[in-house]
Amino acid sequence: MALEDLHHRYGDTVALERLAIAVAPGEIVALIGPDGAGKTTTLRIAAGVLTPASGLIRMNGRDVTGGDDTARRSIGYLAQRFALYGDLTIWENLRFFASIYGVRPADREDTGARLLAMTDLAPFRDRLAEHLSGGMRQKLALACALIHRPRLLILDEPTAGVDPVSRRDLWRVIYRMRQEGVAALVATAYMDEAERFDRVVLLNRGRVAAAGTPRELRENFPFAVLEVGPREPRVAALRALRDEALGIPGVVGAHLFGDRLHIAADSSGVASALMARLAERVDLTTPTIVDPTVEDVFLAAAS
């Protein structure tokens, strides 16, 4: 899929401007950005749920901007609030979505059984959806999005609020589908997930602020990153250190990373001078210059 020069507005609010994203077969692309950056709007347009004000949507080189049933059947879309039916069992939900997608009855049984096995839901196939845990509901939602064997998955924060085990299980399924050539465009709030994607697209205010592989984003980060923290890691002490760092000339950003602070300096010289200055502080851990992370890139762009 290729999204080309997309523009969209909600009234006077610009949601997307000159947005361009491409996803190749078997590729997993992360969409990251602060709240209101345009991630959900981008995914809704890609899924054919929303028509852009202008721009093109191409599937396999073919223009499908105005809506195309064949293109829609090749997409599996998992929205933030996927509508499962609580009064139906796991198996009945799968059969219902299979019928909506026009899956042949013979294929429903085979594909449904395979998806239940992949998501570890087979032992619970007769349980009502309203009695499922949050993680099990999300795995069922993913299975429903895959029931018609799409070639592209569009997932809007699929692991938000999901327990670590279910989160692992969801990604195991997604990567299994990738081995079969299925591509995925995924909005995520978790930077550790974005680090493992093939490519990352960072949105800010409806535009692409940065794009590339995680390694490319880290290597092209224009600032030096210094890591330091208080010896007694309290939130108040971290915030005080952050505020102090932001007042130093040459510091372009300072953000909390767990019990440490990442300070972005506009040159290695500033970072070295700052490191020497902070090393004299007995209340701080030894400052070190570290490699930037995707989260450093995200926070710098967002601020």
Q: Could you give a quick summary of the protein structure above?
A:
It is built from eleven helices and 14 strands. The chain is of the alpha/beta class and 303 residues long.
Key attributes of the depicted protein:
Alpha-Beta Plaits; 11 helices; 303 residues; alpha/beta; 2 domains; four-stranded antiparallel beta sheet; Rossmann fold; six-stranded mixed beta sheet
What is the SS-derived class? alpha/beta
Q: Strand fraction band?
A: 25-35%
Task: Describe the strand arrangement of the main beta sheet, using strand numbers.
Answer: 6-7-8-3-9-10
Number of strands: 14
Distance between the termini: 30 Å
Low-confidence stretches: none
Query: What's the CATH class of the largest domain, please?
Result: Alpha Beta
Shape: globular
Helix tally equals 11
Alpha-carbon Rg, integer: 22 Å
CATH fourth-tier homologous superfamily of the largest domain: P-loop containing nucleotide triphosphate hydrolases
CATH architecture of the largest domain: 3-Layer(aba) Sandwich
Mean pLDDT: 92
Model description:
The chain has about 300 residues and is an alpha/beta fold. It has 2 domains: about 220 residues, 3-Layer(aba) Sandwich (Rossmann fold); about 80 residues, Alpha-Beta Plaits. It is about 35% helix and about 25% strand. It contains 11 helices and 14 strands. It has a 6-stranded mixed sheet with strand order 6-7-8-3-9-10, with helices on both faces. It has a 4-stranded antiparallel sheet with strand order 2-1-4-5, covered by helices on one side. It has a 4-stranded antiparallel sheet with strand order 12-13-11-14, with helices on both faces. Strand 7, helix 6 and strand 8 form a beta-alpha-beta unit. The radius of gyration is 22 Å and the shape is globular. The relative contact order is 0.14. The model has no long low-confidence stretch (mean pLDDT about 90).
